[in-house]
C-alpha cells in the first residue's frame, strides 16, 4: 500500500493517507505540480510558512529499475516567483520508494530547527538539529550517519539555506553517503530553511514491494540490457559523463564563455574543460569516471574527481558546473573548478546560479575573468550570513539589478543554463517558455543544428523534448536514459503496470508529459506571469556570439503554436 505523508511542522503532527495505485503513477513532477496548484500556492509569499514544500517519487522508486529513483522537489520558487520543480538522484528517492511513500508535504514552520526522521515502521520523529546548524554539508552528513547509522538516506540543507539564500538547493545522499546530489535550482533550499528543517532522514528498508515481482524483475533486466546496447548511453554518458557535452558545445559554439560573450573558450584541440581532457587525466590519477549516483543505475554517468595525489576532490563534476561556474567565469583549469565545485556542494548551492552570479561581479570589473582566488573567496564568504553573503545569495537577477548591469543572462529571474540560446535554439525556446525559469532540464535538444530548419520544426523539437522530459520527471526517471526510454514508451508503461497492478495504456506517457506542462503554465498564469516574461535578455538579440556570429531569432510573439498547446486546461 502506497501512502502520502503530510507534516504540520508547527504542531509537530504527521498525517498519513493511502494513495491508490492509479495515482501513484502520476508521481514526481506531476505530483508536485498538482499539489501546488490544488493548494493555491501561487497566492502565498514563497518565503512564508504557508508555501508547501513537496517531495515526490515515481512508481518504480525503491526498485533496481535503472535510473528510476530520482526525487522531485516542488514549491513556489522564491527565486523565480513561479512554480518550481527541482529534482536529484542519489538514495533519498530509493528510500522513499521502499517505504512506499509516494509524496511528502511539509507545511508551516517548525518552532525550532529539526531533523525530520522517518523510521522503517513509519514513525515520524522531530529530532533537535541545533548541533548541525552552520555546518557544511559534508560534516553535517558525517554527523547524521554517526547519529542514525549507515542504513539511512537523507535530504540535507546547507548553511546558505539556513539564512534563506536563494542560491540554495537540497542535497540528497549518493550511494557512498556523499551529500552531493542536489535538487539545486530555484531556491528550494530557502523554502526548506524557512521551515526550519535542517534534514530529512529516512531509514532504508532494503527491499521494495511490487505487485508482480517476476515481471518487474524481468523489466529491470530488460531495461538494463537496452541501456547497455545503446551507443549514446554507453559511449557518451557511461564512458565520459555529462562533461563530454562541454567538448561538443565548445566545438559547436554554444558554450557560455565570460558571461555569454563567446560560444567557444578555446580551439577544440586546446580545450581543457571537457571530458576529452578531464576523463583520461582523472583516470590516470586513480579517479573514477564511471560511477552510479543511485542504486541500480547502469548508466553510471557520475564521476569521482581526484587531485594529482589521487585524493578525492569532488563527486560529481558535471557539464552545467563546467559551463557556468567554469567557462562562463573565464576559468580554464579543471582542477580549480573541481575545488570550487566541492565548496559549492558543501554549501549546498546551485552551481548554475552561483556561476552566473560570480560572472556578474567580473562583468562589473570587481575581478578579472578566471580569477580563481576571487571566486574561492566569494564562495567561502557564503558560509556565514554576513551582509556580503546575503547579497550574493540573492542570485543572478537580483545581484545584476543591484549592480546596475545590462548583460544579465536570466529568464524569469533564473540564470540561463549552459546552452547559449543564440546557437542551441530549441533548448533556448524551452528555457523561454517553460514555467520553471531558464532550465534546460525542462526539454533539452543540445545537438540540434537548427539554422537550416523551419521555425515550426524547431518549435516542435522543443515541445517534444519538453513532453518527454516532463514524463520522465513524473516517473522518477533520469533523462539520461532518454535515448532508450523515449523510444520504449510501451515497455516503460508495462513496467509501471507490473509494479502497481494497474492497466495503463502507452498513452500514459503523453498524458503525464503534457499534463505537467499545462499544470505548470496554469500555476504561473495564476501567479501573474505573462508571455512577456518569456523574452530573452536584450543582449542576446543584439550581440552576435562568436564564433558563429548568431543572434537570437525567437521572441514570445513567435511562440504562438506552443502557447496554444500549453494553455489548455490540465
TrEMBL record:
Keywords: 4Fe-4S, Iron, Iron-sulfur, Metal-binding, Oxidoreductase, Plasmid. SUPFAM superfamilies: Aldehyde ferredoxin oxidoreductase, C-terminal domains (SSF48310), Aldehyde ferredoxin oxidoreductase, N-terminal domain (SSF56228). It holds the Pfam family AFOR_C. The keyword Iron applies. It comes from the Bacteria. One of its GO terms (molecular function) is electron transfer activity. Residues 1-207 form the Aldehyde ferredoxin oxidoreductase N-terminal domain. SMART domains: AFOR_N. InterPro entries: Ald_Fedxn_OxRdtase_dom2, Ald_Fedxn_OxRdtase_dom3, Ald_Fedxn_OxRdtase_N, Ald_Fedxn_OxRdtase_N_sf, OxRdtase_Ald_Fedxn_C, Tungsten_al_ferr_oxy-like_C, W-dependent_AOR. Its cofactor is tungstopterin; [4Fe-4S] cluster. Belongs to the AOR/FOR family. This is Probable tungsten-containing aldehyde ferredoxin oxidoreductase. It comes from Thermus thermophilus (strain ATCC BAA-163 / DSM 7039 / HB27).
Amino acid at each position: 500500500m502506497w501512502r502520502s505523508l503530510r507534516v504540520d511542522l508547527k504542531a509537530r503532527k504527521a498525517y498519513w493517507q493511502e494513495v491508490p495505485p492509479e495515482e501513484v503513477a502520476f508521481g514526481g513532477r506531476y505530483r508536485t505540480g498538482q499539489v501546488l496548484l490544488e493548494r493555491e500556492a501561487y497566492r502565498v509569499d514563497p518565503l512564508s510558512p504557508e508555501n508547501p514544500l513537496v517531495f515526490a517519487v515515481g512508481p518504480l522508486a525503491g526498485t533496481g529499475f535503472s535510473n528510476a529513483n530520482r526525487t522531485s522537489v516542488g514549491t513556489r520558487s522564491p527565486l523565480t516567483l513561479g512554480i518550481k520543480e527541482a529534482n536529484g538522484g542519489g538514495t533519498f528517492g530509493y528510500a522513499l520508494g521502499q517505504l512506499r511513500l509516494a509524496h511528502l508535504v511539509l507545511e508551516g514552520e517548525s518552532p525550532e530547527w529539526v531533523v525530520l526522521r522517518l523510521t522503517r515502521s513509519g514513525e515520524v520523529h522531530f529530532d533537535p538539529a541545533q548541533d548541525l546548524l552552520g555546518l557544511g554539508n559534508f560534516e553535517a552528513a558525517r554527523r547524521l550517519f554517526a547519529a542514525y547509522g549507515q542504513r539511512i538516506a537523507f535530504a540535507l540543507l546547507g548553511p546558505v539555506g539556513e539564512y534563506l539564500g536563494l542560491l540554495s538547493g537540497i542535497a540528497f545522499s549518493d550511494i557512498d553517503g556523499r551529500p552531493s546530489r542536489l535538487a539545486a535550482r530555484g531556491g528550494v533550499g530557502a523554502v526548506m530553511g524557512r521551515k526550519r528543517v535542517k534534514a530529512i532522514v529516512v531509514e532504508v528498508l532494503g527491499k521494495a514491494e511490487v505487485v508482480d515481482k517476476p515481471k518487474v524483475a524481468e523489466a529491470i533486466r530488460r531495461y538494463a540490457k537496452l541501456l547497455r546496447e545503446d551507443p549514446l548511453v554507453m559511449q557518451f554518458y557511461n564512458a565520459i559523463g555529462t562533461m563530454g557535452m562541454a567538448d561538443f558545445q565548445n566545438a559547436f559554439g554554444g558554450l557560455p564563455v565570460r558571461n555569454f560573450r563567446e560560444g567557444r573558450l578555446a580551439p577544440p584541440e586546446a580545450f581543457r574543460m571537457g571530458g576529452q581532457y578531464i576523463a583520461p587525466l582523472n583516470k590516470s590519477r586513480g579517479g573514477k569516471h564511471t560511477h552510479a549516483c543511485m542504486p541500480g543505475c547502469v548508466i553510471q554517468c557520475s564521476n569521482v574527481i581526484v587531485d594529482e595525489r589521487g585524493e578525492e576532490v569532488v563527486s560529481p563534476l558535471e557539464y552545467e558546473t563546467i559551463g557556468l561556474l567554469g567557462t562562463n567565469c573565464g576559468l580554464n583549469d579543471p582542477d580549480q573548478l573541481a575545488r570550487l565545485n566541492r565548496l559549492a556542494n558543501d554549501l549546498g548551492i546551485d552551481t548554475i546560479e552561483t556561476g552566473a552570479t560570480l560572472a556578474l561581479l567580473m562583468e562589473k570589473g570587481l575581478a578579472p575573468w578566471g580569477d580563481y582566488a576571487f571566486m574561492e573567496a566569494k564562495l567561502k564568504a557564503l558560509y556565514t550570513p554576513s551582509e556580503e553573503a546575503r547579497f550574493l545569495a540573492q542570485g543572478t537577477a537580483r545581484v545584476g539589478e543591484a549592480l546596475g548591469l545590462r548583460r544579465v543572462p536570466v529568464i524569469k529571474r533564473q540564470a540561463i543554463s549552459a546552452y547559449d540560446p543564440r546557437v542551441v535554439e530549441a533548448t533556448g525556446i524551452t528555457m523561454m517558455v517553460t514555467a520553471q525559469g531558464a532550465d534546460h532540464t525542462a526539454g533539452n535538444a543540445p545537438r540540434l543544428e537548427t539554422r537550416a530548419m523551419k521555425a515550426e520544426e524547431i518549435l516542435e523539437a522543443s515541445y517534444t523534448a519538453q513532453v518527454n522530459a516532463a514524463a520522465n520527471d513524473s516517473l522518477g526517471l533520469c533523462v539520461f536514459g532518454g535515448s532508450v526510454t523515449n523510444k520504449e514508451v510501451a515497455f516503460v508503461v508495462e513496467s509501471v503496470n507490473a509494479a502497481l497492478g494497474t492497466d495503463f495504456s502507452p498513452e500514459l506517457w503523453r498524458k503525464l508529459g503534457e499534463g505537467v506542462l499545462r499544470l505548470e503554465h496554469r500555476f504561473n498564469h495564476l501567479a501573474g506571469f505573462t508571455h512577456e516574461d518569456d523574452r530573452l535578455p536584450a543582449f542576446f538579440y543584439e550581440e552576435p556570439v562568436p564564433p558563429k556570429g548568431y543572434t537570437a531569432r525567437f521572441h514570445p510573439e513567435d511562440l504562438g503554436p506552443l502557447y496554444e498547446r500549453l494553455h489548455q486546461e490540465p
